């Protein structure tokens, strides 16, 4: 088979493996999850790599280093990468140039890099005589790094909104207590979700009533290696002794209600994802202003009654103004129900 007759289908299996490798990288941090495999003319995989996080070798470099460690040369091979090789120097060098220097003769990738500084690797490779094939397993690749893609294209972090509630929609009892509405399995899921985001945001009332630590801990109670930055939003003062002030991921008090301004500032700091965990006023404000990308709604098997609804004012006075959701998953965790949903926006169905 000649170079001219190759198509994306010829590299579908290799790209699928590269996407599996991409998942090994962290979901948090400024960089996307990327996987790479090096294949020979028979499209057999002979080396693999993935990006392990900011400051570490990119997936292409890891694959090249793995290959060289085995004593083989990369010259004449094909690199199959989940994202267009970068063309800029950041904490590491440009992958496109590294592939050129290694003698790679063909590069196959799934998605173009939309970054204003990191993109352009494909053109650099083509102009240097490397065959480039784009658009292989594009939708699967987009699903892996959708949070990162959203952040770099919109300039604001991906927002996951979570709340726990009783089956009658209450986030707390009449006296304000809310521990625990859901069970241990659900709370363990929440801790994993915290660790997979760059920042976690709560309102001042949550801090004043619950005094939470908001750390991400495993089932043994130990801290996950990655801790999100803890942000408290609201004008009321945070007590000096509040546990959140000692958060290992860092603490920040945003003493206003300017959600758009906060998201813009976080985007400039390369915060790619945030986890909004309450309370009801803050959650409702994010929804009302249209800044939620995914909802994690956890429900415990109890009834509380009373006024403490999980969601308050959304600016809806008639059914025509309702916030419609697309439910993407419904799970049973112990006795709890966990619903994952996304806002129904123009073009979605």
Strand order of the largest sheet: 9-8-7-10-6-11-13-12
Strand content: 15-25%
- Give the SSE string: HEEHEHEHEHHEHEHEEHEHEEE
The 3D shape can be described as elongated
Q: Mean pLDDT, rounded to whole units?
A: 91
Defining traits:
349 residues; alpha/beta; 8-stranded mixed beta sheet; 5-stranded mixed beta sheet; 10 helices; 13 strands
Structural topology:
Layout: H1 12-22, E1 35-39, E2 45-50, H2 59-69, E3 78-83, H3 95-102, E4 106-111, H4 121-127, E5 131-134, H5 138-144, H6 146-154, E6 158-166, H7 184-195, E7 199-203, H8 204-210, E8 229-233, E9 251-254, H9 259-268, E10 273-276, H10 280-288, E11 294-300, E12 325-333, E13 336-343
Parallel strand pairs: 3-4, 4-5, 6-10, 6-11, 7-8, 7-10, 8-9
Antiparallel strand pairs: 1-2, 1-3, 11-13, 12-13
């Amino acid at each position: 088979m000649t170079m001219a007759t190759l198509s994306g289908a010829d590299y579908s299996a290799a790209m699928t493996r590269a996407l599996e490798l991409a998942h090994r990288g962290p979901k948090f941090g400024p960089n996307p999850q990327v996987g790479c495999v090096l294949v020979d003319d028979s499209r057999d995989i002979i080396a693999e790599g993935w990006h392990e996080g900011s400051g570490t070798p990119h997936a292409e470099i890891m694959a090249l280093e793995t290959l060289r460690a085995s004593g083989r040369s990369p010259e004449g091979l094909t690199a199959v990468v989940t994202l267009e090789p970068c063309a800029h120097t950041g904490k590491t060098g440009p992958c496109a140039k590294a592939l050129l220097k290694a003698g790679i003769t063909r590069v196959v990738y799934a998605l173009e890099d939309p970054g204003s500084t990191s993109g352009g690797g494909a053109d650099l490779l083509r102009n240097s005589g490397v065959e480039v094939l784009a658009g292989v397993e594009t939708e699967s690749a987009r699903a892996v790094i959708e949070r990162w893609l959203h952040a770099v294209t919109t300039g604001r972090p991906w927002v996951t909104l979570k709340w726990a509630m009783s089956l009658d929609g209450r986030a707390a009892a009449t006296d304000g207590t809310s521990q625990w509405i859901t069970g241990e399995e659900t709370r363990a899921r929440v801790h994993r979700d915290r660790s997979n985001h760059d920042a976690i945001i709560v309102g001042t009332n949550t801090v004043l009533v619950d005094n939470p630590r908001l750390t991400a801990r495993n089932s043994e109670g130990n801290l996950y290696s990655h801790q999100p930055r803890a942000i408290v939003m609201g004008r009321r003062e945070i007590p000096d002794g509040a546990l959140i002030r000692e958060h290992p991921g860092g603490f920040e008090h945003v003493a206003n209600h300017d959600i758009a301004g906060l998201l813009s500032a976080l985007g400039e700091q390369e915060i790619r994802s945030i986890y909004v965990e309450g309370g009801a006023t803050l959650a409702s404000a994010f929804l009302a202003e249209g800044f939620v990308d995914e909802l994690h709604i956890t429900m415990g098997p109890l009834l509380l009654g009373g006024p403490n609804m999980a969601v308050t004012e959304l600016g809806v006075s008639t059914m025509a103004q309702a916030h419609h959701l697309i439910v993407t998953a419904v799970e049973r965790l112990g006795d709890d129900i966990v619903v994952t949903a996304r806002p129904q926006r123009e073009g979605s169905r």
